[in-house]
């Protein structure tokens, strides 16, 4: 029998870097198969369970008479109305649920389909470095476009220089930030709002996936408080510890939302209705900007973990980016973070090398605080011996 013919991949597939966490996952599985006691601070997937109200709502809505039909790409009209109510209370921004909101199957789907809707081959996409890898690989590369790197440097508070984004087709921003944990000050939001208003050639996408993961009284804003000429992604993954349920929403300028819906309608059929409704029921528990008590409990847990890790790492003489947001701790190791990350792995502590998020991340590591407090304590004790 002749050997099977292996079709060539499309160039864009060959151009994709390996998803950074796939390799890490493989190493972790190997260790776990050997029976090693691995503490995984690599992947940003909450260990805490979703609030009961979320899973109960999901179960209830699975039995809805219309739950088995194809959903719509833009999302259920009642769900969009609830998102508009939440957005008004939480951010003080009024949205038209018919034209300015689209439910997405997680922020990741929204980001990539928005790219499909606007980015042509060879055009440039402004991508921060370091950043969530999907902006560069999932949008620019899969649209046959080029990445224009927007470096986020420690000395600039991990904020980009907007001059460097001039002329790109689409540009991504993300505060509170993954992987640095950085938040943006009011002055930056105003600058970014002005940029949106004065650069109509650039579609500005703000990824607000961590808006609700904040501590010490910090309240993260929406870019829509500063401009209406943008699109913003929101995710339920972190606020309700629900990464596996795949739900979120895009909000913003009407033509951007319409373009996203048009792209989505050829790619997916929308998020399952029961999951949309569980999101809406959860958001309905917000009282203005005040989240339900279950979210406060989650925030308290992550806040305690963050305080523990920040203090322990600083005691080791490492430079930590202190932050009132996200469950990521970004640590400056030196010029090359790989020896530290590899030694940590030998001690069965998984951390992510900063370069996995872009070359400007070289010299840093990211810790995701997705383990119970006592496991983080144990991880810190192991790291102390490096
Ligand atoms: C910055 C950022 N945006 C988006 C996402 C993905 O969100 P979702 O689970 O809603 O697709 C993540 C997940 O880690 C993220 O870190």
Strand fraction band? 5-15%
* Largest sheet: spatial strand order: 2-8-7-6-5-3-4
CATH superfamily placement of the largest domain: Type I PLP-dependent aspartate aminotransferase-like (Major domain)
Bound molecules: pyridoxal-5'-phosphate
| Residues in helix, % | 25-40%
Number of strands: 13
Terminal Cα span: 54 Å
Poorly predicted regions are none
CATH C-level class of the largest domain: Alpha Beta
Q: In this structure, how is the largest beta sheet organized?
A: 7 strands, mixed
Give the CATH architecture of the largest domain: 3-Layer(aba) Sandwich
- Name the structural class: alpha/beta
The overall pLDDT, averaged over residues, is 96
Gross morphology is globular
Count of discrete structural domains: 2
Number of helices: 12
